[in-house]
Amino acid sequence: MKNHVDEAYLELCKHILDEGTAKGDRTGTGTWSTFGYQMRFNLQEGFPLLTTKRTAFRLIATELLWFLKGDTNVRTLIAQNNHIWDEWAFEKWVKSADYRGPDMTNFGHRAAIDNQFNTIYKEQMAIFQEKILQDDTFAQIYGNLGPVYGKQWRSWPDATGGTIDQIKNVIDSIKNNPDSRRHLVTAWNPAEVEDMALPPCHSLFQFYVADGKLSCQLYQRSADVFLGVPFNIASYALLTHLIAKECHLEVGDFVHTLGDAHIYKNHLIQVQEQMSRDARALPQLLLNTDKESIFDYEMADLMIEGYDPHPSIKAPIAV
């Protein structure tokens, strides 16, 4: 079967390189950017884990389960050897009065171009990670990312002082009123954006039921195409599979709508390397059939079968 996932993703990369505009950004790295782009993936044709570079399903899945539990502290992820949120928590620490180590100003950019500084940065990051795991007070202060995705998904504050569980509500809505046009979850809470370590990039998603299948559309306001988008595709595909199973539906399409879709200028060589590779067969997702509720899953309940990608391609993250 043709791999439509890598094909669509690499076409996005080509579109940005051919048609994109050079723009500045808050990280100071610079990007090639385009605005308004959409990809559609038929989830019946395989699980959309890119094959033109290895994409770490374990990291994607543990992050999604973290969101679904309403967790906002990196301690949970670090304990599972998942470090995709570490930089934002680390930044909070090194900018605080409690930090006494070497100057970490602009650490993401400096670590990518200065090997000596990169060694120092890694030493400080290791200290940070150990303190998060061993010191409860430190973890509570510096591991907490603020009201990011998990908080908004599971505990959106309402006008009466209570909270709204958007994930539970959308599952109930799909089960009891499948033709509704209100199967929405939003992470963009204007009242709390400034309190978040990183305002939500994947900010709104909607489900759609037709012909016994569940489809999902994500609106992503800001898309780091090389590092972030492959994770986002697989994460929302996994979420769609989990909710479809609980609602006794098959999976349909995942529609990925991008606002500012950009390639960082220090990712150009990596993107070109990936574009030179041929796609391989998509893997399949296997779920533990004993689990009934989306909230009961653990990493051991999720498995990818038949994944044979090209090697991973490393690139610096812009913080």
From TrEMBL:
Positions of (6R)-5,10-methylene-5,6,7,8-tetrahydrofolate binding: 224, 318
Top enzyme class: transferase
Catalytic residues of the enzyme: 201 (nucleophile), 201
Molecular-function annotations in GO: thymidylate synthase activity
Record-level GO BP terms: dTMP biosynthetic process; dTTP biosynthetic process; methylation
EC number: 2.1.1.45
Catalytic activity: dUMP + (6R)-5,10-methylene-5,6,7,8-tetrahydrofolate = 7,8-dihydrofolate + dTMP
UniProt entry keywords in alphabetical sequence: Cytoplasm, Methyltransferase, Nucleotide biosynthesis, Transferase
Domain of life: Bacteria
SUPFAM superfamilies, alphabetized: Thymidylate synthase/dCMP hydroxymethylase
Pathway stated in the Swiss-Prot or TrEMBL entry: Pyrimidine metabolism; dTTP biosynthesis
Subcellular location: Cytoplasm
Residues annotated to bind dUMP: 26, 181-182, 221-224, 232, 262-264
Main location per the UniProt record: cytoplasm
Boundaries of every Thymidylate synthase/dCMP hydroxymethylase domain copy: 8-319
Family stated for the protein in its record: Belongs to the thymidylate synthase family. Bacterial-type ThyA subfamily.
HAMAP family xref list: Thymidy_synth_bact (MF_00008)
Self-association and partners: Homodimer.
Name of the molecule in the record: Thymidylate synthase
Source species: Kurthia sibirica
Upper lineage: Bacteria, Bacillati, Bacillota, Bacilli, Bacillales
